[in-house]
Request: fold
Amino acid sequence: MLGKETISAEDLDPAKFVEDQRRYLDSSARIEDDVCRTAIPLASIPWMEAILGCPIHSSGTSLKSKEILDDPASLSPVQFDPADPWIRKYLQFIDVYHQSFGDLYPIGQSVIRGPSDLACALLGAENATMALVMEPEAMRRLLGYITDQLEKFLCLQLQHLPVFQGGYVIGQYEIWAPQPVIRIQEDFSVLYSPQLYDEFLRPLDERLAGIVSYSLMHLHSSSLFLIDNFLEVSSIKAFQVSKDAGTDSIAAMLPGLKKIQQAERPIIIKGVFDDHDLRLIRENLSVTGLCLQPVVSNVDEAEQMLPRIRRLWGE
Reply:
């Protein structure tokens, strides 16, 4: 697949990925932690970008969508079509994985990007940012259209995701909930001021998070300057914050993380943690509603990390 310049939905055969998923799930099952690892439609595919009409190109090592709009006013809206090849392929992954794994492993949502991310995918990040100021009404229409498509897709997905142990699991972040769950994100919210977030994105996030009773917002540490704004979105029930290598330290993230806990929202922190990071988390954050997801290279490294964490938390 990566050898082709342009990828189509027909190039993907879910059955060919079952054994890779099985090896990952079986090997990680030996880690004695507290999460429910999921099988998800390929996270490397920009699913929603493809559904919105962006061509998907291969660099030989990764897949990337290509912009299709010069400006937001050039959008030609299309009706949401469940028969779209990319939608059918995504749902086929869910069905094939469920048939393959049954009740042994949960099936979850893949990486589905949010309104700010998809606007940048359609326009390019620079054009999307400039349009917020130069063409605000056209940008508002584009973001509204994107959210319409996202909402329909997420609702359709919920009809296909199977029940696991009487509930559902948030794909990629592996947290079980007693009712259907969705994961939303706004990686490119980093380009928005607090005022622009409230004007353009907040109503859309409220709408998407409100699709279900259990919704999680994925953020990077670079967007924590907007945490007061995100916390105003009452339908977001939990937050996942990624500590990216070479960016903000845990010390710099703590004020935002504390605000999430003060608002009584559960929080998942994911990243590469050293002992100093772990001590800062232990000393400054409550264990109530807290999930740590260390990024490691392999199962052996995970098994070495767990005793360190348990000793620090006094288990």
